[in-house]
Amino acid sequence: MTVEACNVSDRRLEPVITWFKEQGWHPLAFQMETWQAYLAGQSGLIQVPTGSGKTYAAVMGPIAKLLETPGVGLQLLYITPLRALSRDIEQAIQRPIDEMGWNLRVESRTGDTSSSKKTRQLKNMPDILITTPESLALMLSYKDAAARFKSLQAVILDEWHELLSSKRGTQTELCLSHLRSLQSNLQTWAISATLGNVEEAAQVAIGLGQQPVIVRSNLNRQTIIRSVLPTSVDTFPWAGHLGLRMFEELVNALDINTSTLIFTNTRSQAERWYQALTFAMPDDVDRIALHHGSISVAERAAIEAGVKAGDIKWVVCTSSLDLGVDFQPVEQVVQIGSAKNLARLLQRAGRSAHIPEGTSEILFLPTNALELLEISAFRNGLKAGAIEARRPLDKPYDVLIQHLVTLACGDGFTVAGILNAIRRTVSYAELTDEELVWILEFIIQGGQCLGAYPHYKKVVLDSDRYVISSPQIARMHRMSIGTITSNQAVRIRYTNRKEIGSVEENFASKLKKGDVFFFAGRQLEFFMMKDMVAYVKGTTKKSTVTPSWAGGNLAISDSLSTHLRREIDIVKQDGEFNAELGCLTPILSTQARISRLPFSHELLIEVCKTREGQHLYVFPFEGRFVHEGLGFLWGYRFAKQQKTTLTVSVNDYGFEILAPSDYPFQDLFSEQFFDVHALEDELKESMNISELTSRKFRGIAQVAGLVFQGYPSAKKTSSQLQVSSSLIYDVFSKYEPNNLLLKQSEQEVLNQQLEAHRLAKTLDRLRSLSIIWQETKRPSPFAFPLMIERLSSRLSNEGLLDRIERLKKQWEKK
């Protein structure tokens, strides 16, 4: 690739340009634009395709300034969402420093950094520090933070799209707001490849009160999508089952000499696919690896090194390799099952041909027949330039509570200073005085309910500053800093104490001595559990049991759902079929014969009577989470008119409501089913909202410091944490129903779990559609997966598979 060199208009860039020339490179236009904007004192966001040189675009401007005016102490802070990325980033920044002999010190500080190195860093900070949001917050919790960051000139936010719409992103916002209160001229640059709301994301990154610079590129990076198609949809798994029946087709489509990342959507799925591929390729086991977040850090690092060296050719992985680890040797990417999200597919595709204007190639293997519609929608969505937006959270009180206690552990804070800082963040711009007063009372007195317990009185007023109340509370708080609240992990070790990785407590607690399971690519026999550590030994016994992890369900995004509905329009209009739609023709034809294929301006509602009862199938094609809210809402509205017991099941294409025989769905249905005026109240009534908010409250209680997860050598179990948080939840519900943390848990259920905002928009859209009622004698091909979804909740895996086969044979015969 030849790119015309840009004119150098600032002599401060001469050392950078010289190093580029020694590599045989020319600065790309977007890199030069970023450097010049930085040297002009501006902040902003870089949005360019993966593998285009974003890291050097972000860091070389600050480095050029450091070389011209050397300082003492920490001057450039680089924040990355993953610890694994810090190794690559440090090497990338260290390379020009070593080769040019620049007098700059670069170090990383993450959870993997040794305690001795962390202690040394606090006393003698490097010029450039690479860290994570949690490690940054931890540094702010130590005394003399203001002195430690007094020389800081710039902050770089890597993979900003990954942080933006999560509590980790909010935590980062708050930390940056505090750094800006210490350094008013602090510059901030965010980096992203896949954002639909670039301007908003840039504003969140740099804070309110200044105008961000948006740097884009005109690099032409193509993404080629191919599919591994089933030979016949008649024998294709209808509702998923991991698509493992097609592992031979995948092996035949790949070349063991071609470096390939094979992405799955869950860790359990990755374990099973690794097992299948090594079974199919016994002579190449040493060239196939398994990589996911529950495998030990050392083993993951060894796998990454093996890929870069070319020794490992195939890696079965999860989102652990989604982000910026630089794998230039990777030539091809495979996606097992739908990525459900245009940005996620684009990010994963970008792992291959990781160079500017490279052509990414992704091979898609569906796990059920209807996913072929999705991959066709992916192709057309990317062609249209569609990408999902990532929005900041709205005032998560638990993160703010944790942040204030963090600052109190360090140099302390004043009310005026903290209010000015946090209101410059997008997330807390609308925080009211009353809300801040409540939060301060909560951390000082324990609020209305917890004042009798000294360990909830975390902050005291010392002169004009709020500081931590005791060294013990400070120690406990530092061990709890962070916003990731997944289930407690049980470490897996060999009996010789070598660590393999970790599994969730729910899985480990069911193991008995002698049980065999497959984890991290090994057959392991359970020996005993002690202090949240499961001891195992290798075995030749065979087992297909793999650990399961929570959070495996992904839902199609709003952008993808729009293009998914258009795919059926193409079929209905006899448009030009691609290979995926052609493969689906038998199913789509049968759907049209038994029921109907809906246009995008139509809402298909099927009614079917079986021995189980009366079925109502509705197909909005809006995604699992929206359908869950919609299914319970409509069930509630039906039951209000004629009481009965209803069962709801959902998937990405629609939802089912099962009622007793002859239930008059169509007679009870009306325009009121699209009403949004009392949507939140009806959602609360339709679902066991108190049970859902109680579960959600556990994570909020952990972030806000209401429950202590235990010391490193004596971690509390998930059940202990649940009991503790449930007790506090019950106390708040009874004695302080207006508690802000209770309100937050309710809003998180509505907005994150049920996507209430998107649900309201969906109801408005459905109101404008032509409603097609279709009575069928048996479930249609669109309805069949919903039936399987419902059966899977009450049958074992073996029983479910048997039932599926019987139903499929009945359906095919009819």
The gist of it:
This protein is an alpha/beta fold and 814 residues long. The chain is built from 31 helices and 27 strands.
* Average predicted local confidence, pLDDT: 87
- Alpha carbon gyration radius: 28 Å
> What is the strand content?
15-25%
Low-confidence stretches: 1-7
What can be said about the biggest beta sheet?
7 strands, parallel
How many beta strands in the DSSP annotation?
27
Number of helices: 31
Structural class: alpha/beta
Q: Give the N-to-C terminal Cα separation.
A: 58 Å
Shape: globular
Instruction: Output the strand order for the largest sheet.
Output: 3-4-2-5-6-1-7
Helix content: 40-55%
Write the topology of this structure:
Elements: H1 14-22, H2 29-39, E1 44-47, H3 54-68, E2 76-79, H4 83-100, E3 106-109, H5 115-123, E4 128-131, H6 133-140, H7 145-148, E5 154-157, H8 160-164, H9 167-182, E6 187-192, H10 198-206, E7 213-216, E8 223-227, H11 247-253, E9 260-263, H12 267-280, E10 288-291, H13 297-309, E11 314-317, E12 332-336, H14 342-349, E13 360-365, H15 371-383, H16 397-409, H17 415-422, H18 433-445, E14 459-462, E15 465-468, H19 471-480, E16 489-494, E17 499-504, H20 505-508, E18 516-519, E19 522-530, E20 533-538, H21 558-572, H22 579-594, E21 602-610, E22 613-619, H23 624-641, E23 647-650, E24 655-659, H24 665-668, H25 679-686, H26 689-703, E25 710-711, E26 714-715, H27 718-735, H28 740-753, H29 756-767, E27 770-776, H30 784-792, H31 797-813
Parallel strand pairs: 1-6, 1-7, 2-4, 2-5, 3-4, 5-6, 8-13, 9-11, 9-12, 10-11, 12-13, 16-20, 21-27
Antiparallel strand pairs: 14-15, 16-17, 18-19, 19-20, 21-22, 22-24, 23-24, 25-26
